[in-house]
Model the fold of this input.
Amino acid sequence: MTARRRAAADGAGHGLLVPALFALLALAAAPRPVHAAEECTLDGRRVTPAQRADAPRSGLMRCMDRDSGRLLRESTYDDGHEVGLARSFHANGRLRRAAYYPPMGGESAAAEFTENGQLTALRCGTRALLAPAVDDARLCGFDGRPSAVELFDDKGGLRSRVVWREGKRVRREDLYDNGQIALQDEQAGDRRTERRFSSEGVLRFEAVSRTGPRATVRLSEREFSERGQLVADQRWNDAGDALSAERFSREGQPLSVSHYSGRGLQRVVDTETFHDNGQRATQGRFRALSRDLQRPLGVHLRFDLQGRRIASSTYDAQGRLTRETVWDATGRIERDEKIGIDGTPQPLPN
Done:
């Protein structure tokens, strides 16, 4: 396969053209704070960063620490691209990273380790691909049992707990420095649940989605205050159409409630908002033209702090304001006007 064809197959993957290959060698040969300079060979022939070639290179690339002779990197290149199992090592000789690159480019599986041998990252393929460097058959749950994996940072701190089954991640927990759960992501059948927590362990966000082979549909979202009080709740059906949306104050008082009904162009949303004392403030219906576009429809009402009707606005099917009425505190009409097409008010007879 030519370099041009490989680049097209890769897209934004990990395949490298020849210039990128030698750029990598140049980076490897540059001075580093930890390692001495590297010396690399391709099928036993020394390769220097300054070299440029018209034809792509293929073969086994091995890079050694010039001072100690210790192996630092080893991978196979085909037409200027890494293929198969590639390994890199820490200065102490322990495995730093193992990755598998398929013939068509990209990266199918990878595992990374600290200098002490602790796992820091894991990406599973559709089957075990990293042996003999890494036992991903066990780590990725390809041996018939779920695999619970712990991931650490460079200082040895536990950062994540991940459960894999047949190469699929079914549960993940990311942790704060204090050990509290920061994020939780769990898959059960076609339902995915995501949760985020504060560093004090308070649930702040929860979302449930339906996953499918082609798309993921959000079914619900809930937000919570720093004290764990529900402040927002949204629901969607399996088709992704909104069902309801509610918002609450940090004291649990309702602020707004919306309920959706109908289909297609006849889809509407009925909405209510509330004063701080819990009394209804507004009420109205909207034509739900899209997720972000709504058109007022019918009679919309406004209420005072005591729940008394104080004003109404009437809209036609096109969302045009056609009438406005205002009442005083005793319920007497103060103003009642018809609104013309040009927006001009026309007082109605008593």
Remarks:
- The longest helix spans residues 18-29.
- Residues 1-35 have pLDDT under 50 and may be disordered.
